Amino acid sequence: MTPSILNIFLKSSKLNALIASICFSLFIYLSHYNVENYFLNSLFGIIGFFFIFILKKKDLFYFGFLVGIFWFWWIALAGRYYDLFFLAPLFIILIGLGYGGIFYLLSYLSKDGFYLKATLLFFIDLIHPLGFNWFEPKLVLLDSFFAINNFQYFLFLLSLAILADGLTNKKNKTTKILISLFLLMIFTYKSETNTLKNQDFSNIKIIQTKISQNEREKSIYYIKALNFIFKEIDIAITNKKELIIFPETILPLYFNIQGKYEREKLIKLSKDIKIIIGSLYMDKHKNKKYNSIYYYSDNYESIYHKKILTPIGEKNPFFESINKMINNTFYNKAIDFSEGKTDNYISVNDKNISLAICYEATRNESFSENRNIMIAISNNSWFHPSTQSTFQNLLLKFYARKYKTTILHSANYGSQDIIY
Predict the structure, then answer these.
(1) What is the rounded (10 degree) CA torsion for 123, 124, 128, 134?
(2) Which of 163, 187, 211 finishes a domain?
(3) Which of 63, 65, 223, 263 is the most exposed place for a label (fewest CB within 10 A)?
(4) pLDDT tens for residues 101-118?
């Protein structure tokens, strides 16, 4: 390849966007295949972020389009269970267009000025399309040499803005490059140590399952799930465990209506062990359904309803008339889930422990300064096989570190049970 052809090749905006988006997304796939290399994550993280500063409007649109797909393509997999899988390509394109639009707006508002772009990029995680908050750029640097607290993250962005300025403008070029490298190496370097790993949770049994969504929808599954649950509880009691945690909707029915005998049995067992089970709850009088945690302790049953619902998956974020049309057209006239109203936590050995169901565990509102332990339960079978569980685990790790909280995560198709 001659140099002139190479120059033309490198000037392709689509190629630049592709390279940048791969660098910006590689951390997900490295983690998915259990490659957690701080050097690689740091190197590709710097490259990915740096491209944001030097790409222009059209290029940044392509970048955002590809990043949206690389990060969230798996959302389209849920359509398999509603006979909508034929729409998966359309869903994926819409995801790309949404995040492409966000980065185009970033370029437009900043007028591609490096320092204004750094400021706007710092706040970009506040944009939640349809209420979905999983786009968190700091994740790119989660397992890298760089700190991601707000102050040092802003310095990281500022240093790249100064570097881009120095490389593109002749005035004070050397000084700007040296300042940017100094900021990168000194002020953004991760120096804190994780003290949360010193906690002992050996008295808690965290159940991880791998049950496909198709299997969960079979009529015989309920009996198999109950046998599994009571077997695991008996083993935990024999091993003198204090608490056992089962995944979200391991019993995918309205347990308050259809599980009267089983609930009484769990109440009796709770004198020997505390039990957390994910299931559904139906309020017949108000015609409301909930995604819930059933908690059994000291011969007593408590039920906690999910407060923050997953956009689209559990509650449509549109006007009521549009929501009803969507449910009637695609979900067999099903009703949206309702939101719980109470602050969900339990007390174990005088420790207050937050409770969260799947998406809730990745929301700031679910964390409290007064509680440094969270129990989270999830069902990821909707998106299996994909990188979704890996991405969820990275987000949980991000929030665990942000709020200095240990997350005990019981999941169907999860990737880690104790997250620091």
Answers:
(1) -110
(2) 187
(3) 223
(4) 999 999 999 998 999 999
Whether 114 and 245 map to the same domain: the answer is no
Both 200 and 120 in one domain: the answer is no
Q: For residue 47, what are the contacts with CB-CB under 8 A and spacing of at least 6?
A: 20, 23
Digit-coded pLDDT (tens) for 184-237: 888 777 766 556 677 889 999 999 999 999 999 998 999 999 999 999 999 999
How confident is the model at residue 12, as a pLDDT?
A: 62
164 and 207 share one domain: no
| 348 and 218 both lie in a single domain | yes
- Among the candidates 155, 187, 219, a domain finishes at 187
- Same domain, residue pair 264 and 330: yes
Same structural domain for residues 81 and 211? Answer: no
User: What's the CATH code of the domain at 292?
Assistant: 3.60.110.10
- Domain range for 71 is 3-187
Residues annotated as part of the active site: 248, 306, 358
